Hints:
The longest helix is centred in the first third of the chain and has 16 residues, at about 5-20. The protein is mostly beta strands. It has one helix at about 5-20, and strands at about 45-50, 55-65, 70-80, 80-95, 100-105, 110-120, 125, 135-140, 145-150, 160-169. About 10% of the residues lie in helices and about 45% in strands. Strands 1-2-3-4-5-6-7-8-9-10 form a 10-stranded antiparallel beta barrel. It has one domain: Calycin beta-barrel core domain (Lipocalin).
Amino acid sequence: MKIRNIQPIISILACLILLTGCSSTTFWQSTPAKPDYALSSLSWLEGSWVGSNGRGVIMEEHWTTPRAGTMFGINRTISGDHTTYYEFLQIAMDDQGRITYFASPAGRDPATPFTLIDFSARWATFGNDQHDFPNRITYELQPDNSLMISIAGKEGSEQPLRRWHLEPQ
């Protein structure tokens, strides 16, 4: 059998190959792609950290190893013989696959979520523009391996930037 006009057959085959190849690309995905970073990117935060304001107030923060999709933390402030503040913390994937910092001051439920908005190998910033204060929480591992924690309000806010400098314990 002799095929007289092969051009339409080649065009149809090319279209079928193209459509089949596209079906596996992100173009056709109905769910957002997973972020290209993992919770293990924050493993530098793991451990116990402690700092003092020089006036008898001590702040401690303790973080677990990132495992099974979570990191757990606890923060407490001590003045003299009294715990004056505490907070339960968790970093995990939210229901949309984003790394999220969940803060529960004084054990409050539900926790307030702050989504990871920027990070590097030595710092991470979490944000929640809907929260009254803070709107940004940043953890930064310093060159001397101490930890700087900063909280800030919205740009132009009357709330001052607050910082704590903690040493590894």
